[in-house]
Amino acid sequence: MSFTGHLFLGLLEGGVSGLVIALTAMGLSLVFGVMRIVNVAHGEFFMLGAVFAWYFSSLTGSFYPALVAAPISVALVALLADRFILRPIRYAPEPTIVATIGLLYILQQLVLTFYGPYARPVAAPIYFRVDFPWFGYSGYKLVVAALAALLLAALWLVVTRTRLGLYMRATQQDREIAQAFGVPTERVYAAAFALGAVLAAIAGVLIVPVQQAHYLMGLDALLLSFMAVIIGGVGSLTGTLVAALFIGLIDGVMSVFFTPTLAKIVASLLVAFVLVLKPMGLFGEDRL
Amino acid sequence: MSARRITRREAMKAAGALVGAGVLTGISGTLPTLAPTAAAQASTPSGKTLRIGFQVHRTGIGAVYGAWYEKTANAAVQYINETGGIAGRPVELVAEDDGTDPKRGVEVVEKLAQQAKVDFIFGTLFSNVVIAAAPPRAGELKIPYLVVSEGYHVPSGKMNRYVFQPGITDVHAQVTALVPWIVKNLGKKITMVFPDYAFGYDHRDFGGTTIANVGGKVAALVPIPPTETSFTKYFPQIPRDTDVVYHVMVGPGVLTFVLQMGEYFGARKPKLFGFIDSLEGVDMASPGLDFLEGSHIWEALPRYADGYPTRYETFYRARVGVNASGASQQDPKNVSTYSHMFGVWETLFVIKDVVEQSGYEKPGPEDYRAFIETLERFEWFNEGNRHPQGAKKFVGRLHQAFGQQFISQVQSRRLKVVDRTRIEDGMYKPEGDYTKQPL
């Protein structure tokens, strides 16, 4: 295969995975920005999305109901977690980290108990193969990339053009002043947490026909999201998007030309460099 | 408080033992006048329970194998207890999860040997876990450690005198038997795709050497990390003039691997020879697997019942609760790891034979010496209910069993056996000799 073919495959793979990482990472970034908490269980919402997608699509025999039902179910789980875990500890940063680590294990073990250790496949709702001059590629993956891009645009509209978005931005800037102006911050917290979980869940649903639902699949999603959020700048949605695409493309191109292991090493080095040179991330706020 | 807890635990244990040993034994213990008849004695084990430690991958990437290994072990122990136990003693499994994690595996071996004080430890599968746990711990703790792993680490001589693999053929023997078939029937230029750790290296090293020995050529080597979830980026490494892609994958990503290979190559695909490891626990009717139609797969024991319909195989299949398509009788969607789990069954019967012939009674240097030396003297395990995969040649100096192998073709989304290799096809020049090591 020619150089162009290799490069094209790298960019294609990288672009698709970058958009999916962006979707998951946006959720993490949103939760961190608005609530100032680190949700270690974020990857498990991605996993739950995939597992619920398997459940609903095998129940109904079709993928489309799952596309709606799975994110809603995950949102309910997130709302319960917010109400019964995060709110009682008043969203204090350190206890939240410990609590969400606990939540991570609880969700994983529940899935292992009730769903089992299997990697279960879900048939793609649309299947076609795109034949490029050098190689063939999954048409469904291209659809996933397009859907992820649409959802990211929708998220941008929500944050900038709706009342909920306004409330979230106000809470992010200063919770107490927002509260003084009548913003129901507790509900905004719950909404942000659920929205973050939904974004991860949708990514999980979209990816399950490509990757199968497995109870350990949340870890990779979590690590990549963290990388994107750290490189992009904590709390900055634009930064997260740019960083996620960047990570995806580096991974894709490096994997094709060299090895995937090297790609992971480079991505981790990048995180280290950003932390040393620009501790708040590329697009981060200058203050904590 | 703690004293009370111990009492309760002891009470539970006693109750459990009573149930396990059967009511008859309980009665005969207290009321000698009601001694069981000779016939009942033969079928109802009595005496001190033989406790077999079972290191199982209940969680982690080996969990699908672990679930079926555990099902098989339970079925074997149930059958053993129904037919008189081991040397007349009831058998109990002491299972402990190692998370398919090498570090945890070492702790599990220590826990089983030192706290649970089991008689033997068996059942480990993933080679990285075996290699971490076997040489340092089993050797130092001086407890027999019988693995069901396929890896070449046991017959290589790099483990120690306490480590055996009597229930399943190792990778070196598998590829020695199969590669000549691949080169003869499918093509000479072969690209090997394998997991990037010990088990995969066995394929790379012995498959590679054998390919060269029989006049083939390794076109490229493509190692893939076992936790990988997306594979398209590896496929450019497969040269276009490759005749055959030799693939062996493990872990939850295997289905994606096959699916993406199909998308990548489309109709211009090379021939494929896969190891069933790539498809263990995976339903052949899964979406995307149509790409495998017509390709060849190695099986150790055919998943579909018509592949090797002996009465022993039928008996074994029913006892472990697997239907004619290789899935759970209760849940046809739950596909077994049929080409590996028979090793668990056969290993437990090897333990039975060896305990009975060596006069083993309890953990300790003398009894273990008798156990190990007796097992090393075995040369053959006959085909039967105890060895349903077929007869096995056992080489004592290597601590390794050798059996027949099956080659199946994917036809109409099923695996159809098309050829079978003989035990001698897989025999290679032995390297190690454990019998020279001190006990």
Automatic annotation (TrEMBL), chain A:
It is a multi-pass membrane protein. It is found in: Cell membrane. GO terms for molecular function: transmembrane transporter activity. Keywords: Amino-acid transport, Cell membrane, Membrane, Transmembrane, Transmembrane helix, Transport. It holds the Pfam family BPD_transp_2. Its main location: membrane. The keyword Zinc does not apply. The chain crosses the membrane at residues 6-30, 37-57, 63-85, 97-118, 138-159, 188-210, 222-250, 262-283. GO terms for biological process: amino acid transport. It comes from the Bacteria. One of its GO terms (cellular component) is plasma membrane. Belongs to the binding-protein-dependent transport system permease family. LivHM subfamily. This is Branched-chain amino acid ABC transporter permease.
UniProtKB/TrEMBL annotation, chain B:
It comes from Candidatus Segetimicrobium genomatis. It comes from the Bacteria. The keyword Signal applies. The lineage of its organism: Bacteria, Bacillati, Candidatus Sysuimicrobiota, Candidatus Sysuimicrobiia, Candidatus Sysuimicrobiales. Keywords: Signal. Residues 49-411 form the Leucine-binding protein domain. PANTHER family: LEUCINE-SPECIFIC-BINDING PROTEIN, PERIPLASMIC BINDING PROTEIN OF ABC TRANSPORTER FOR NATURAL AMINO ACIDS. InterPro entries: BCAA_transport, Leu-bd, Peripla_BP_I, TAT_signal. This is ABC transporter substrate-binding protein. Belongs to the leucine-binding protein family. The keyword Ligase does not apply. Pfam families: Peripla_BP_6.
